[in-house]
Amino acid sequence: MLLVAPDLGRLLQTTQEPSKSPYAVKYYSAETKHSLCKDGVTPCRFQGYTFEGADFDGFIDTSNHEISIRNKWTVDTYSATYKENATYLPLASEAALIDQIYNTSDKALNESYRVTRNEVRRLYGEDMAADLKKEQTQWIKQRSKNCGADTDHLPRTQAEKVCFIQQNALREQAFFLWID
Description:
Layout lengths: L1 E5 L18 E12 L6 E10 L3 E6 L4 E6 L5 E5 L13 H30 L1 H22 L10 H22 L1
Antiparallel strand pairs: 1-2, 2-3, 3-4, 4-5, 5-6
Helix pairs in contact: 1-2, 1-3, 2-3
């Protein structure tokens, strides 16, 4: 398993460093942890996942959705609950899959925008359609700021594409509010 998370080692620091936005993430290889059977060798009950960073050891307890980290050099510890993402998003290394999902997401968003704008124009007139276009332009700029993008508001990296996929899905839901 691969845990993709913010720099968890920062949680154990006494003085927090400024965050690197938007993607100050690290990859942590995680291994399953099992209790051993009576023979002392055979894995029995699954307990969770262990992982480590440069200065800490971590454990993911799937039974209560908690991540715990322990500093390797001091007695400092940190625990936090987590929520699993219901929608699978591929790892940044799965470039072909990300490209496919991004292209589909982008086309769906553009089509939803066109349909919504035409419906707003039909129901409420040209002024409201112009307002929707203005809001969409502002949203595109904000998405670029949130996710990172080039000067044409297009993603430059796989991580930015994953962020665009998430933002596009939320935006499509918001289009329904314009019609109501």
